[in-house]
Amino acid sequence: MKLSILIPTDFSNNAKSAINYAIKLYQEQECTFYLLHAWSVKTNNRTYITSNFVDTSKEEAKIKLKDFKNNIESLNANKKHTFKTIFSTNKLIDAINCNLKDFSIDQLFMGTKGVTKAKEQWFGSNTVNTIKKINQCPIIVVPDEYNFKPLKQIAFATDYNRHFGDELITIKAFVKLYDSKLQVVHVCKKNTLTDNQNHNLTMLQANLSDIPHNFNWMTDELKKTEEITNFIKLQDIDALILINYNHGFIENLINEPVIKNVVSYPDVPLLILPYKD
């Protein structure tokens, strides 16, 4: 099966990190990579902008996108990979939404700059908005300058409060890419589960029977983000899977101020799966 992958780019280093990771992750898979640039005119505090200035700026961005693609192609000799460009004058979220449908996108890759001092958040504003507003396909968030390594250990954080659906298909496909081991992580203050949690755990155990996996229970002595980050470091985890529930772990991750304790946040690629009740 050929994958269709959408990667927004503003030509920054963190966008390149996302592209490089996607290329290496799927080096054995047939893929079409759509490089999306959502263009808007940069005013530089001008009080009056001529149509000539706008047209010139737009053409320069189109050339830059073409050169960007050519440069990636020149560095990637994989015949299984095809690269195409998408130039849009819509806002980023609108451009993503439109092209997810038009090109039947399977996955969306985003780069993140890490902590931004202005926002005091782990993700940049574009990544935050995308995670909040896009739920049609999995999103893979790649830390800036992250060096790819084969996925040997993948963590999946869950509280067992909701039933598992189609997202398990994506999790298992991701695990099978590199014959990884899935480490299911549950962080909780209590040492017992409710009847609903036990039911969901039993269902998960049955569904994971055909892949290598472990179940891990961690006490909630610290913030969940800190507990999971400690687990990632301890187990040498290569990627973290999260399901994008409302009022769940991801909301805490993207909204909490983190400047004071940067080391307590995951620094591995995140696979964020949409949840449809």
UniProtKB/TrEMBL annotation:
Alphabetized InterPro entries for the sequence: Rossmann-like_a/b/a_fold, UspA
UspA domain residues: 5-143
SUPFAM superfamilies for the chain: Adenine nucleotide alpha hydrolases-like
Name of the protein in its database record: Universal stress protein
Organism: Olleya sediminilitoris
